[in-house]
Structures are given as structure tokens and as C-alpha cells.
Amino acid sequence: MVLLITVVIALPAEPSWAGWGVVVVVTVLAIGATAVLTKIRYTVFWYATSATEIDIQQGIIFTERNVVPMHRVQSLRIERGPVADRYRLTNLKIRTAGGSVSIYGLDRDEAGELCDRISRFARLADNV
User: Fold this and answer.
1) What order of strands is seen across the sheet that includes strand 89-96?
2) pLDDT band at 67 (very low <50, low <70, confident <90, very high)
3) CA angle centred on 115, ends 110 and 119, rounded to 5°
4) Are residues 30 and 89 in the same domain?
5) Are 40 and 85 a contacting pair, CB within 8 Å?
6) How many other C-beta atoms are found inside a 10 Å radius of the C-beta of residue 111?
7) Contact 45/57 with Cβ under 8 angstroms?
8) Number of folded domains that form the chain
9) Domain range for residue 21?
10) Mean pLDDT estimate for the chain
11) DSSP collapsed to 3 states, the chain
12) Tell me, what's the pLDDT at 126?
């Protein structure tokens, strides 16, 4: 957006409203796309846990589904940065011997409860 506004200011257009019209249209499209993609993300992302497995599906265009057996879970890690902390968002990383699976954008309390539930099902020791 900053680059677009800089171009409009630096390159004078014959009708002055044309350049600013482009800025307004691009801004409206960017805000609309953000709102729609955010809504779609929350409708196509889900997870479920049971005593035997964790089932995670995510993706908008390319859908990825992971099923992790509980007996394969080796460690759980809760990650959040300063911006995510401000909005109470947390990422949960589930590590196994074969790799890791992440659940992004969980509420802080929900992530804590999910971590406790998975560690109880997987019989992980709490070293804290």
C-alpha cells in the first residue's frame, strides 16, 4: 500500500482522481480479501482428539490432513510471540519421532487445555 501511494504521489496522473481511485479500489479489495480469507480459514480448519489419535485438517486451496497416534507423541510445545500474545493467540507444536505437526492460532486457554488433554492421553510427564 505504501508503495502504491508513493507511485501515485510521484507520478502525476492527468486526472488527479484516477490515481487515488486506484488506491481506494486496491485498499477495498485488500480489506475484503483479508476478511473473506480469515472467515474461510476458520471454516476449513479443525482438529479432534481422542484417546488414541489427534486428527488435524487445515488448508484453504490445498487441504492437508494429519492423523497422529497418541502413542507416537513425544513432546508438546506452546509457542507465541509478542503480537500473538497481545491477541491471546498460541501455536501448539506436537512432535513425534517422524516429525511434527502444528496447530496455529488457538486461543491461549484452549491451547493449554488441549496440551493438558494430549499429554494425559499420551502419558507424557510434566517436567515443569
Assistant:
1) 73-79, 89-96, 99-107
2) very high
3) 150
4) no
5) no
6) 21
7) yes
8) 2
9) 2-40
10) 84
11) CHHHHHHHHHCCCCCHHHHHHHHHHHHHHHHHHHHHHHHHHHHHCEEEECCCEEEEEECCCCCEEEEEEHHHEEEEEEECCHHHHHCCEEEEEEEECCEEEEEEEEEHHHHHHHHHHHHHHHCCCCCC
12) 63
What cell numbers appear for 6 in the block? 508513493
Per-residue pLDDT band for 115 (boundaries 50, 70, 90) equals very high
Residue entry with cell 482428539: 49
Q: Average of pLDDT values for 81-101?
A: 90
Residue 125 backbone dihedrals phi, psi, to 5 degrees: -85, 140
Domain shared by 21 and 81, yes or no: no
Band of pLDDT at residue 2, cut at 50, 70 and 90: confident
Q: Is residue 78 part of a domain?
A: yes
Question: Same structural domain for residues 34 and 51?
Answer: no
